[in-house]
Amino acid sequence: MGRIADVAEKFWTGAISTHDQHPFTPLMALEEVAPGVAFVSSFANVTAVAGERGLTLIDTGSAQFASQVHGSVREWSEAPVELAVYTHGHIDHVFGIKSFDDEAAREGRPAPRVIAHQAVLQRFDRYRATAGYNSCINSRQFSVAVSFPRRFREPDETYASQLTVNLGGFDAELHHARGETDDHTWIWIPSKRVLCTGDLFIWAVPNAGNPQKVQRYPRQWAEALRKMATVGAEVLLPGHGVPIYGEARVAEALSTTAELLETLHDHTLALMNAGAPLSAILREVVVPEHLAQRPWLQPIYDEPEFIVRNVWRLYGGWWDGDPAALKPPEPTAIAREVAALAGGATALAARAEERVAAGELALACQLAEWALQAAPNDDGIQAIRSRIYLLRAARETSLMARNIFTDAAERPSKRGPSVP
After folding, report:
1. How far apart are CA 101 and CA 111, in angstroms?
2. Which residue of 10, 123, 253, 314 is most buried, as measured by CB atoms within 10 A?
3. How many CB atoms lie within 10 A of CB 338?
4. How many Å separate Cα 177 from the centre of its chain?
5. Would you call 418 helix, strand, or coil by DSSP?
6. Do both 31 and 143 map to the same domain?
7. pLDDT per residue over 58-102, tens digit each?
8. Domain count, the chain
9. Is 80 exceeded by the pLDDT of residue 417?
10. Whole-angstrom Cα distance, residue 322 to residue 324?
11. How far apart are CA 330 and CA 151, in angstroms?
12. What pLDDT is attached to residue 419?
């Protein structure tokens, strides 16, 4: 058993907790997982498939890890890269292609042909239009300065629903699915019994609720997972995390992930149909315990509450059902009024600290936020607010919540991160 397979087994059995070792952390290694199929653990993962004419890459990794991916693939095979498939257009999956494009140019041969779903083109257009915003939100989400790109290696060929591609002696089936994105592709290679899921499976609660990103599609995501679970894959290669080996395990991982999404989606929609406001739905909708215990369904990146909110956004729009929130007063006006009722901003901040002592961190954050908005130049209140947000960040399990709260603590006088 190789290193990647060994780590994969420990994640599956719970010998390694995903709370202690984040499964997104790349092992920076390559391992052959089936004859002629190599898995590169990177950010994001890459799969290399050897055919009669050369190699096919399924995803290409990020710009930051491009040299690692290229070096790992070249240690495994010197065959030219003939084809690359983007599972979707997120930048950690598409920028590694440049190393192989450059290699082809140096050697005087054609660049790899790139195939993706047709919506990838619209994604790249949107990225160009929102590069500044994406720099802001990704800097906050990952707690590292991000300068979002404006130039992309676009696919040479796109497809709409399904496409079968010959990889040199055998076929790969490309299937479109809406899930984390509207441009997702999952790939099934029947002769190898290898399934490449992209980010439709990531060893965590699905990224179906990201609070800073565009719409996700949990019901259609679940449908794709159910379909993947029926193909008979012996090896599942995810967009992030480690492989899953064995047909029964692959089916279990996919079907339970689908069940989680179905539960959150269907319960939320049922309550919406009954006329419940978002606040009530957030109290009522929970993940069943038999799913919450699964090692591959831990809320370490996204979390169920955010998925519920995204289901609401999908069907119900941005208003949460609270009439006072439809056209609310300015936040600073609310803050000043609450501070006046409390006896001043300092008293409000002190009350926030009392709520911390009582274990009510969500309420404490709101009180501290009001206090600072009412007295934005008060260094003492800024310090209290920062301490409270850092305490809250430390108790969060999901990367998204933790880093948003950490960013708030580190930038007390601003409403968001500075542009890198």
Report:
1. 5
2. 253
3. 18
4. 16
5. coil
6. yes
7. 999 999 999 999 999 999 999 999 999 999 999 999 999 999 999
8. 2
9. no
10. 5
11. 38
12. 37
Question: Is residue 76 within 8 Å of 108, Cβ to Cβ?
Answer: no
Are both 232 and 378 inside the same structural domain?
Answer: no
Give Cα separations from 55 to 80, 86, 158, 240, 272 (angstroms): 6, 15, 19, 21, 49
Residue with tokens 């301490």: 387
**pLDDT tens readout for residues 199-252:** 999 999 999 999 999 999 999 999 999 999 999 999 999 999 999 999 999 999
- Rg of the chain (C-alpha set): 23
The values of phi and psi at residue 20, to 5°, are -90, -35
Residues 139 and 111 sit within 8 Å (Cβ to Cβ): no
d(CA 384, CA 420): 27
Domain boundary among 237, 260, 283: 260
Do 350 and 239 share a structural domain?
Answer: no
What is the reported pLDDT for 90? 98
Task: Scan for tokens 């491009």, then name that residue.
Answer: 66
pLDDT at 418 over 80: no
d(CA 7, CA 241): 10
CATH number assigned to the domain comprising residue 362: 1.25.40.880
Q: Are 44 and 166 members of one domain? A: yes
Which whole-number Å values give the CA distances from 403 to 131, 209, 392, in the listed order? 20, 15, 10
What is the span of the domain harbouring residue 224?
3-260
CATH number (domain holding residue 93): 3.60.15.30
Task: Share the mean pLDDT of the chain.
Answer: 96
- pTM, to two decimals: 0.95
Whether residue 338 is found in the same domain as residue 238? no
Bridge partners of residue 49, in order along the sequence? 37, 56
pLDDT at 170: 98
CA distance 238 to 359: 38
State whether 238 and 341 are in the same domain.
no
Residue 306 counted as domain residue = no
Instruction: Please identify, among 222, 243, 260, the residue that sits at the C-terminal boundary of a domain.
Output: 260
Residue 167 falls inside a structural domain: yes
Residue 160 lies in a domain: yes
DSSP 49-81: EE-SS-EEEE--B-STTHHHHHHHHHHH--S-E
Same structural domain for residues 232 and 370? no
Query: Is the domain of 223 the same as that of 347?
Result: no
pLDDT in tens, 339-390: 999 999 999 999 999 999 999 999 999 999 999 999 999 999 999 999 999 9
